[in-house]
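[Meeting: bench + compute handoff]

Bench side (C.D.) handed over the final construct sequence. Compute side (W.E.) agreed to return the predicted structure before the next meeting so the bench team could plan truncations. Sequence as handed over:
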Amino acid sequence: MSGKGVTAGTHLLVETALRRLHHFQGDTLVRTYPVAVGKPETPTPTGDYHVVNKMLNPGGVLGTRWMGLDIPGGNYGIHGTNNPGSIGKAVSNGCIRMYNHHIEELFPQVQIGTPVRIVTGANVAQSAPGETYVIQPGDTLWQIARRFDVPLSTLIELNSLANPHEIYPGQVIVLPGSQSAI
């Protein structure tokens, strides 16, 4: 296992703005799934969390599988749904909903303790002027450039980064198309 922490293991990345859940094995993307996320009044909390419990067939609005997350201040999880028409929308009370057949595929590949990063993840093409991104633990500028489909040199220039290796969690960077925000 490398010094990056999650490089060798399974981890999940949820992009709420794009309503996608990405399943990674190390640095390799295994699969991307469409999801439903929290509505504006009850948004899905962003941050770094872990799967803390799993349940088969919780039923009702939770569908066929539940994976609870250690998000403070509530009972949040990644789960199936009895409302498949909600997938792709911001309609939940903060949970991440998946089609039942997708959560059934993912469930056995995720263990208790699996890291889950939840980010806004707005695509640059969908970014409004003034769009920024908050660096998360484990991010590299190269990953951010790939995620937002932006040339690395553009991010470096736009943010006047003397050393692209020296970014830190909580740092706010400006994305292209939002130069007026500088």
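W.E. noted at the follow-up: DSSP finds three helices and twelve strands in the chain. C.D. will use this when planning the next construct.
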